Amino acid sequence: MDHINPSLMRLISFMGYDTIEDHSSGCHIYDTSGNDFLDCLGGFGVFTIGHSHPKVINAVKAQLDKMPLSSKVLMVEPYALLAKKLADISPGSLQYVFMCNSGTEAIEGALKIARLKTKKHGLIYTKHGFHGKTMGSLSITGRDAFQEPFRPLIPGARMIPFGDADALAEAIDDDTAAFVVEPVQGEGGIHVPPDDYLPKVQEICRDKKILLITDEVQSGLGRTGKLFACDHWGIEPDIMTLAKALGGGVLPVGAILGTPDVWEIFEENPLIHSSTFGGNPLACTAALAAIEVIIEENLPDKAAETGKYILNELKAIRDEHPDVIADVRGIGCFIGVEFADSDVGGIMISSLAARKVLVAFTLNNQKVLRIEPALGISRDDVDKLLGYIRESVAEVSSLISSL
Questions:
Q1: Domain ranges (residues) in the chain
Q2: Which of 35, 45, 65, 81 has the fewest CB atoms within 10 Å, counting from its CB?
Q3: Which fold has domain 54-296?
Q4: Per-residue model confidence as pLDDT tens digits over 72-89
């Protein structure tokens, strides 16, 4: 309250999270009083493989004893190994990697690369899309509440509806450099596009000779039931951004991936974009171990199976209480519960907090409660979550009926 952010502390306390976390494991966080919280928020997509995964922890500990940070002049082996691994698993012709520290940094770099490659300035983004809050990424984040206090933002950014390929075609002009899109909108309220949307988008981008940038910061690395959300629709972006789950829930890591054609921008000036801490040995080691865990533990398939079960159960709860829940949607373990009234969301969060369950709103749509557990969450914990949601919804429904 005295030294960080008093308003945020009051908001967190109001939601029922007025406690101090101490240690964590898997899907569970323990506070300093010994309370056990079931984490179904997952750090907004960070804890895809769970908290404190031993493989990632041990890999980072070994690298810490060896060399924590690099000289930035000599070659860095973990960086090269990670770049090769990302190239091997990524869609299409993505081959080159620039490492940074977060999702918003990855977007900033992607925008610079797109402008430099195309020699154009215009950027198209989607309403309710979320790409970060630094100045460039904020300029393509589709919510007025975040943008308005900081206008004027970077020029040439234009917003269109999500899921409407025709709107993209109409928005492109002679100065358009790129279209930036989340394959599945996260902070907008967990919106899965129509099946023909992204293939049409790719066709339009190719035809109009603009770059397609897919933001997989939250949807990537197994969250949606595929290794990348792009894989559901078979699209091949020119640039892709990653972060959140890439650090294995242990270290902050971001990445920009690009095709050989895009990466030509570094030929004339290899230092045109750089990062002091990006690509450091600790972060790259964590990311390599995290990718190995995701593949070895078959987490995308587990996400698909678990997500289908959760969605079906939540839809049953919705059908029982349409006065409380307006919609349930998602893909894999990337799930949104939209309430009939925005005030209900706050009550639900507090109710679940009282039952020691961590959840939160989506940032660009506060009617939607997100559910993003670790992909390896046990069926017992899933059933515990669903039971608590059912109890909380019934309480809210009873409260509504009494008014």
A1: 54-296
A2: 65
A3: Aspartate Aminotransferase; domain 2 (3.40.640)
A4: 999 999 999 999 999 999
